[in-house]
Design a protein that fits this description.
The chain is of the alpha/beta class and about 675 residues long. It contains 16 helices and 30 strands.
Length: about 675
């Protein structure tokens, strides 16, 4: 088995809004004994101890009012005769780190759900009694502030044990007695995985009927706000009515069969896809409950013994109401396929990539640009609604033509979108017939953005011409004059941000005498297959845009893909794992665009520059400044010029300095 020395990291939470309650949801930590038999057939099992130790230390360092573990604390099935020892080891590990979990029971802990196709024995009276005596009763509730949490045992549902009926009676009585409180539900198995009507018997990843309908009935009848589950080792984000149903990934391993959702085969056929290992940190703020996706699969400098680095927690979409950073959804968010028939299921195992969806919230995107056709595609529409419920504004675009009735096209979606973009093919000026439609939409309270799509000459290295979506600064005066002639003011213009000297384009647009639009959205496409180049470009563009309150930025492509000649990396890769430009974007989104951001921030897109005079003055008197490594989401608090110079020299890539005196750490 692998081993590694970690220090418990210090978290930098200074970028987050104040919270009234905070809690952790962790699952599938899979404590193993040194001679675990499965390691012989699955080599990465030997990495579980390192992965779990790292994740638990990260969790233990976060402030919390309570913590919940959703099950599978052990990787020793009950029938091996080793489960008791492994569970004791897991509990001792939790206690040594100060983690006091409300604990759900998993299939690895007490046995599989009652399905005759399950690969391990069902829950027995002995395994259930052992859990109850060693850990806690497997169905129970607790209170924290205005939250009532209820933990249920999914492994006995639909089964023959008398405790199954006892749990039903207890749950209904407990919920009835707390119906006036905010209720969160914690389970091991998801109620459903992709769709509530998916397979039951023979499907390993969710509850069978009739338990599935019973739990969903509880959700409906008692207004349960959130249902957390584990078991599948991946992210699934669903809704049932107003309730959020979120599946939390494992901290030990991804599951191989679920890699069928991706265009590439992940390391170790999915089991080595460590960038997907994570837990959730939940925070209740004045804007509602935010779920922070805390990635645990890789070492960071904040965990190296003796390091003074802190791991930075950034804002989610709900935390950033200014909505100045958007994403272009180049890829479908509801990408799913029926899946293979693969052990341990004997029916098709549907798979869907919800890491792509979750990344939008992790970056803190304020709005999403996407083709309007997605609104009429059920798989996409459901994903888009989830994002909107989590604080992401929806901005679909329609391509104008003289046979498009724009008002009629928008009408069916009016209640679920926040703005409209009209793309003008081949021209920078809208046709006269479009102007009345724009007036009608804006009079109805729906902001409108204009963007041209212009075919441009290729350069010497390109065989085909390219289409530019977005105005150039030089186009703005003519458009402004045209709009003035027709007495029309539009909400926003979409401009294309060049890769070379983006600051000059932004300055030119800011100096343009435009009076017929309220703001500019800058569309930035990443330029290279080199993540370091892209990270610097993102940093430069976001810094320049932040200086103009009426401007926003739209980053794309969301994910890697073959762009028909132009090979460019995305913010996330083909496995939906973040690339360095993604980390830079989520860091700067919080640093530059949170509510209390001010002029104390300096950003160096290409690495450390000369220290600003205000920073030198502060350090010369021994006062503190904060230094940020933007591509690794790290921060340091320093009080000397030598200390600042040493840290900046070691960063290399995009960095930032904040001269404010304090930084909230945990």
């Amino acid at each position: 088995m692998s081993s590694r020395q970690f220090q418990t990291p210090v978290w930098d939470l200074s970028l987050l809004p104040a919270a009234s309650i905070q809690f952790l949801v962790v699952t599938d930590t899979h404590f193993i004994l040194p001679d675990n038999a499965q390691a012989a057939e699955w080599s990465s099992v030997g990495e579980f101890p390192v992965r779990t130790e790292r994740a638990l230390r990260m969790a233990a360092a976060l402030p919390r009012d309570f913590a919940v573990h959703l099950g599978d604390i052990s990787h020793e099935y009950p029938e091996t005769g080793r489960a008791d020892v492994a569970q004791e080891g897991a509990l001792a590990q939790f206690a040594s780190l100060g983690l006091d979990f409300h604990q759900a029971a998993g299939n690895m802990d007490i046995g599989d759900k009652p399905d005759r196709t399950s690969p391990a024995q069902w829950v027995t009276p002995e395994t259930l009694a052992g859990w109850h005596s060693r850990v806690s009763r497997s169905w129970h509730s607790f209170d924290a502030g205005d939250i009532h949490g209820i933990v249920l045992n999914t492994q006995i549902m639909n089964g023959p044990l008398p405790e199954a009926a006892e749990q039903i009676a207890w749950a209904e009585a407990d919920l009835a007695a707390n119906a006036d409180r905010r209720i969160l539900l914690f389970l091991h198995m998801p109620v459903f995985y992709v769709d509530r009507h998916e397979h039951s018997t023979g499907f390993y990843n969710s509850l069978d009927e009739p338990a599935r309908s019973w739990v969903l009935g509880l959700v409906e009848n008692y207004g349960i706000e959130w249902v957390f589950s584990g078991h599948t080792h991946t992210v699934e984000i669903n809704r049932h009515g107003a309730a959020r149903l979120w599946t939390v990934p494992s901290t030990a391993t991804s599951r191989a069969g679920l890699a069928e959702a991706y265009a590439l085969v992940p390391p170790d056929r999915g089991r080595g896809d460590v960038d997907k290992l994570a837990f959730y940190f939940l925070r209740e703020t004045e804007r509602g409950m935010s779920a922070h996706h805390v990635r645990t699969g890789r070492d960071t400098e904040a965990m190296r013994p003796g390091s003074a680095a802190r791991q930075v927690m950034t804002c989610t979409s709900r935390d950033l109401p200014a909505r100045r950073v958007g994403l272009f959804a180049t890829h479908p968010l509801g990408h799913a396929n029926p899946g293979p028939v693969i052990w341990p299921s004997i029916v098709r195992q549907p798979v869907r990539d919800d890491f792509r969806l979750a990344s939008v919230l992790e970056l803190g995107a304020g709005f999403l640009r996407f083709p309007a056709f997605d609104l009429s595609t059920p798989s996409e529409a459901s994903r888009l609604q989830i994002l909107r419920d989590e604080g992401v504004a929806l901005s679909p675009y329609w391509v104008w033509s003289d046979h498009l009735d724009l008002v009629a096209a928008v009408a069916p979606h009016r209640a679920v979108i926040d703005s409209v973009e009209v793309v003008l093919p081949g021209t920078t000026l809208p046709e006269i017939s479009l102007l009345d439609a724009i007036r009608s939409l804006q009079n109805d309270g729906l902001p409108v953005t204009l963007a041209p799509a212009i075919v441009e000459q290729s350069d010497a290295s390109q065989y085909h011409q390219r289409t530019r979506v977005g105005y150039r600064p030089a186009d703005i005066p003519a458009l402004d004059a045209f709009l003035a002639t027709h007495d029309l003011t539009i909400h926003r213009l979409a401009c294309r941000l060049p890769h070379r000297n983006p600051g000059a384009a932004i300055d030119e647009a800011a100096a343009s005498p435009g009076n017929r639009f309220e703001g500019i959205d800058w569309y930035l496409d990443l330029a290279s297959e080199d993540d370091e180049i892209n990270a610097g470009l993102v940093a430069e563009a976001m810094l320049r845009v932040s200086a103009h309150p009426s401007m926003r930025i739209v980053l794309g492509p969301h994910a890697d893909f073959d762009r028909s000649m132009d090979a460019t990396n995305g913010l996330i890769d083909r496995l939906s794992n973040p690339r360095p430009p993604f980390v830079v974007a989520r860091m700067l989104n919080s640093l530059l665009f949170r509510e209390d951001a001010d002029s104390s921030m300096w950003v160096f897109p290409g690495g450390a520059g000369d220290l600003p005079a205000a920073v030198i003055d502060r350090l010369s008197t021994g006062e503190a400044v904060q230094i940020y490594d933007l591509a690794r989401a790290l921060s340091w608090e320093v009080t000397s010029l030598d200390g600042a110079s040493e840290i900046l020299a070691g960063i290399g890539g995009p960095s930032a300095i904040d001269s404010r005196a304090t930084s909230a750490s945990a």
